[in-house]
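Milestone 3.1: sequence recovery, worked example.
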């Protein structure tokens, strides 16, 4: 049996890496949004408070989207790990059976 980059094991590893990248990006977006809201809300005048209320809905959507992306990334990593584990177990069984 030939092991190459197109095997299920490498597909699982690719899914883990893609999921980790998604989690990293979502966490960065969530953290940067929290920092922006924290800086803007500390010493806001009445005008700034009015302006922030108008932007708040889009920031809430961004936070919701980032939170969903975070959950998707977690699932992608978990499923990639299952694929890699199953592939590794199958390979081990093939080698044990035919060795």
């Amino acid at each position: 049996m030939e092991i190459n980059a197109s095997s299920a094991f490498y597909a699982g590893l690719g899914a883990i890496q893609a999921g980790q990248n998604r989690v990293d990006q979502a966490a960065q977006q969530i953290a940067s949004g929290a920092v922006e809201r924290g800086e803007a809300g500390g010493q806001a005048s009445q005008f700034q408070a009015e302006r922030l209320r108008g932007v708040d809905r889009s920031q809430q959507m961004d936070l919701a989207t980032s939170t969903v992306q975070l959950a998707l990334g977690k699932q992608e990593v978990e499923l990639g790990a299952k694929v890699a584990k199953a592939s590794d177990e199958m390979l081990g069984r093939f080698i044990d059976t035919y060795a």
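The chain has one domain: 9-98. The two ends are 11 Å apart (CA to CA).
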